Amino acid sequence: MLGFLLNRLWQSAVLLVIVSIIGFVVLNLIPGGPLSQFALDPGMTQADIDRIAAQMGLDRPIVVQYFDWAWKLLQGDWGHSFRDGAPVLDVIWRHLFATLLLMGSSTVIAIALGTWIGIRGATHRYSTFDYVATVGAMVALSIPTFWFGLVGIYVFALKLGWVPAGNMYTIGDQSVLNYLHHLILPSFVLALVNIAIWSRYMRSATLDVINQDFVNTARAKGVTERRVLMKHVVGNALLPMITLAGMQLPSILSGALVTETVFTWPGMGRLFLDSLGYSDYPVVMGLLMFSAILVLAGNLIADIVVAVVDPRIRLG
Amino acid sequence: MSLVPSDINTNAVQTPALSVRNLTVSLPDGMERKFAVEDISFDLMAGQILCIIGESGSGKSVTANAIMGLLPRVIRISHGAITLDGVDLVSTAQTTLRGMRGRVVSMIFQDPLSALNPLMTVGAQVTEVMMAHDIGTPNSRRDRAIELLNEVGLPDPKLMYHQYPFRLSGGQRQRVMIAMALALEPKILIADEPTTALDVTTQAQILQLIRDIQRRKGMSVMFITHDFGVVAEIADSVVVMEKGHIVEQGSADAVLNAPTHPYTKRLIAAVPQLTGKDRDLTQPDESAPILKVRSLVKTYASGSKLLGKRREVRAVQDVSFELARGRTLGVVGESGSGKSSLGRLLVKLMESDAGQILFEGNDIAGLPEKAFRSFRSQIQMIFQDPFASLNPRSTIGHILTVGPVAHGMNPARARDEARALLKHVGLDERAYDRYPHEFSGGQRQRVGIARALMFKPRLLVADEAVSALDVSIQAQILKLLDQIQRETGVSMIFITHDLRVASQICDEIAVMQYGRIVESGPPSQIFLNPQSDYTRELVAAIPGKRADIHNMMPTH
Question: A-chain residues within 8 Å CB-CB of B98?
C-alpha cells in the first residue's frame, strides 16, 4: 500500500511538471501578452514599455522565465498578480470558497440523484421511469450548460421569482439562508450534466451486479429484497463509481467556469476568465496548477478509497 | 410423457418431502420454446438424494429456481403445484416464501467463484442467513458460524470467519456455500451443479461432504447435474429431463442399469468412458517426432520490481516431452497445473522463459514473431469457449478465410476450401454466409475446428476443446477429431481436465501438477497402473468410477 502510494505520488509530480511546461509555453505563445494594454496608451513610449518589461522580468528568454517561476513555486511563492500586485495564492484563496461551495453542493446533488435514478432504472429496467430517465439524460448531455443556466434564470428568477438571478449573496445580508437561496439554481444547473452521466453509469454498474450469482445466493438465504439491494447490489455497484467520481471532480471545475459566468458567481471560474482577459500570467498559471493538482488529487483519492473499500485490493 | 411418481416409490415407509405436480413454467414470447418446463411431476423423498439430470436447456435449473421462488420476473409458473410441508409454494405470497428460503429450503449454486459477495467476510455471509430469519444473537450467530465452518471441513474456522472470499480456493468457497445452506438445518437442500466448476479431486471431496451431511442430518437433497458419473456416485433416485420434459424417472439403479427411454440410453452411451485400452492406430510411425519439447520454463511475475514484494508463479517448470507424427498427446491436470500455459507456449501466444520447442527440428521457442510467422499456419489452436472464440460480427466464411488469405491463399480458392471443410466437419455449406450466433455450442466448435484446419496444419493444439459442451455433443466432437487425425495425419496436443475424455482420444497422456509433468505414458498405464501418487489420486477421484455404469449397463 505504501509502495503504491509513493509510486502514485511520483507519477503525479512528473505529470504536474509536464502540465506546467505546456501551460507556460502555450500562454506565452498567445499574441499580445501583458504589455499590450500599454501599447495603445499615447503617453507610453517604447522605452517605457521596455523598462516595464525589464522590471517584470518579461524580457528574459522563456526558458529562464519558466525556471524562475517554477523555482519560486517550489519555495511556496506563487508570484504576484500583474493586475494589483496581490500574491497569487491570496487571489485564488479569495475565490476558492465560492467555487468550493458551488462545486460541493452540485456534487452532492449529482451523486445523490444520479445514484437513485441509476439504481431505480436498473431495478425497473424498461419501465416508463427508465425510458424517461434515459431520454432525460440524453437531453441533459446534448444541451450546453449555459443554455440551461439562461433558461433557469428566465423561468425561476424572472418569471416565477423563486430564486435570485445571480450573485452569491444579497449585499448587506450574509446569512446562511441567503447563501442557500442563491446557491439552489446554479448548483442544480451545474449538477445537471453530472446527474445524467452518473445515472447512466450507475444504471449499468447496477445491471452488471444484479445478475451475479451472489445476489441470488443472498435471496436464497432468505434475505429481504431491500437488504439484497442495499447491501449486496449497491455495495458492489458503487465500487467502479468511486473511480468515476474521482475523474468527475475536475469536470465540475470546468463546468463551474461557465456556470459562474452565467450566474455572476464570484468563484475561480470567473477569476480565470478575467485573468485571461488581462493576460495576468501568474494568476492563470496559478489556477492551472491548482486545477491540475485537483485532478491528480481526485484520482489519487479515488484509488485510495477503492483500495480501502475493496478487500481484494487492500489485502491482495 | 411423465411417469406417475408413485410407480417408483415401492417402499411404503418413504414419504415425499417435496412434491412437484404438473408444473409448467412459461417463457416470454420470442424464445425458442414456449415453456421452460412443461407438465413435470416428481417427488423428492425424505432423506434421499434425487438427481435431476439433463443437458443444457433441459429446464433442470428452472425447476430448481421455481421451487426456491427465485425465477426471474419474466419467467412465470403458469400451471401446477409444488408442495412442501402441505403448503403449495406456487400460490404462497412472496414474503412467506422469503421466510422459508434458507430456513426450510436452502440452495447452493454452480460457480463458487461468483456465488459469494466479494466485499463481505465469510463470517458475515454465514451469519447473514441467521440474521435474515431473526435467529440468535450476534454472539450465538458467530459461534454457530464457526461451528458450521468446522463442520464442512474448512481449516482454521476462526481465521476463516474473518477471511474474504478471494483468499479461498474454489473448493473452499463451495464449502462456505454449504455451511451457509446448512446454517438453519433446512429440510431440503437444492444443489444446482455444485461440483461442475471444480477440479476432479475437489469434486470428489465435495460430493463426499454432501453425502455425509445428508446422511447425518437426514436431509433431502435435490441434486442437479449433467454428469452421469456424479449420478452414479450419489443418487438414490433419478429424474432425466430433455427440453423441458421428464423423459424418465426411477431409482438410480433402475435408470442407470436399465434405461428405458432412448434419450436416457443415448445420454448414458455418450458419457465418456474411462478406457484402459490404448488407441489402435495402424502402422507405428518410426520417423522423427514432429515436436520435441526440452526443459520448457514459464514463470509469471506480479508486483513491482522496484519496490520488492515480487510474487512469482512457476506455471511451467522444466517440461520435456515428444510427440510422434500423427499421434495425440493428452495433457491432463487440474486448474493451476500449468496445462493451458503450456498450450499457449506451444503456439507462441506467449513467450517461454527458457527451454526449446523443436517443431520439425526447428527451435521455435526463441524465434521472434516475424520469423515464426511462416510456422503459424502449421501450428493451429482450437479454443475452449465456442461462444467467445468466434468474432460475433464476422460471417463464418470470413472467420474461415481471413487467416489463410492473409497467409497468401487465393481468396476464391479459400472460399471453395472453406465450403468443403464446413461440409467435412458436419455443417451445411450454407453456414458460410451466416453469423456465429445462429449456431449452437457444438456447431460453433465445429466451425472452430474447420477454422484451424483451413491452414492444413501439421500440429493442432486443442485447449479444453470439448469442456464447454454437453456430453452427447462432446462425443460427436471427439469422434470428429479422431476422424480428422486418421484422414490428415495431423498431430495433436489435447489439453483437458477430464481424464475420461483424455482416455478416449489420446495415444499418450502426460499428467501435470504444479507446472511439472509428474507422469506420462499410454492410457493403459495411466488408468490401470498409475505410477505416481498424484495420478492415482486423480484416477480415484473420477466420478462414477466405483459404480462403473458402463459395466452395469446391458449391451446396446
Answer: 222, 224-225
Q: How many domains does chain B have?
A: 3
Domains held by chain A: number = 2
| CB atoms B119 and A236 under 8 Å | yes
Q: How far apart are CA B52 and CA B246, in angstroms?
A: 9
Distance CA B467, CA B265 (A): 21
Q: Answer yes or no: do A219 and B119 touch at CB < 8 A.
A: no
| 8 A C-beta contact, residue B127 and residue B142 | yes
* CATH number reported for the structural domain that contains residue B498 in this entry: 3.40.50.300
Of A212, A220, A310, the CB nearest to B102: A220
d(C-alpha B493, C-alpha B321), whole Å: 11
Question: Are residues A69 and A195 located together in one domain of the fold?
Answer: no
Residues of B within 8 A of A214 (CB-CB) are 114-118
Q: In chain A, which residue's Cα lies nearest the Cα of B308?
A: A3
**Closest to B538 measured CA to CA, from B509, B507, B504, B508:** B509
**Cβ within 8 Å of residue A131, ≥6 positions away:** none
Residue B489 lies in a domain: yes
Residues A95 and A269: their CA atoms lie apart, in Å, by 9
Cα B114 to the chain's mean position, in Å? 16
Same domain, A199 and A287: yes
Residue B92 in contact with partner chain A when CB distance is under 8 A: no
For the segment B122-141, the average pLDDT, to the nearest whole number, is 93
Res B204 pLDDT > 80: yes
Q: Which of B435, B406, B430, B407 is nearest to B418 (CA)?
A: B430
Residue B156 belongs to domain spanning? 113-185
Does residue B413 sit within a domain? no
- Parent domain of A211: 96-314
CA separation for the pair A152, B97 (Å, rounded): 50
Q: pLDDT digit string (tens) for B451-482?
A: 999 988 999 999 988 887 888 888 888 888 99
Rounded Cα–Cα distance for residues B550 and B265 (Å): 11
Cβ contact A6–B68 (<8 Å): no
Q: Is A128 exposed, middle or buried (0-12, 13-18, 19+ CB in 10 A)?
A: exposed
Angstrom distance (rounded) from CA B107 to CA B191: 6
N- to C-terminal Cα distance for chain A?
Answer: 10
In the structure grid, which three cell numbers stand for residue B290, read together?
A: 514432429
Quick check: is B459 in a domain? yes
SS (H, E, C) B493-526: EEEECCHHHHHHHCCEEEEEECCEEEEEECHHHH
Please, which pLDDT band fits residue A85 given cuts at 50, 70 and 90?
confident
pLDDT tops 90 at residue B190: yes
Global pTM?
0.79
In a domain, B421, yes or no: no
A315 contacts on B by Cβ (under 8 Å): 164, 167
pLDDT above 70 for B238: yes
